[in-house]
Design brief:
globular, binds zinc ion, two-stranded antiparallel ribbon
Amino acid sequence: MTWRGPRTSGKDPLLAKSAHYKRNRAHWQRLRLPCAICHRAIDYDGPRTINGKQNSRSLVVGHIVSRYHAKRMGWTEAMINATSNTRPECRACSNKSGARLGWQVQQANANRGVRIGKTDAHRW
Ligand SMILES: [Zn+2]
């Protein structure tokens, strides 16, 4: 085993974004509401992937006003990432609404997620 040291890539904009994402995700995870789009139950306890495939019932935190539109309206990052601008969506609906970047960010988080919270999270 090679320990590569702590990952302190705090300047990475994707990481900065994921801090909001985690907070909002935790919020919706607590409330356990159904999908805001199709109103079907979300698989809050299930894995995000099953055999390497996306779990279509898993939770995706969607933006109510998309980042793109919010920025055009002059919103700040804090406003865009506020919990009040997010809603719970299931993976299937999120994919339909075209969450291109979102999935990549979540993949990165998923890969990192095991470690975080115990070791690195308090660093930044
Ligand atoms: Zn849905």
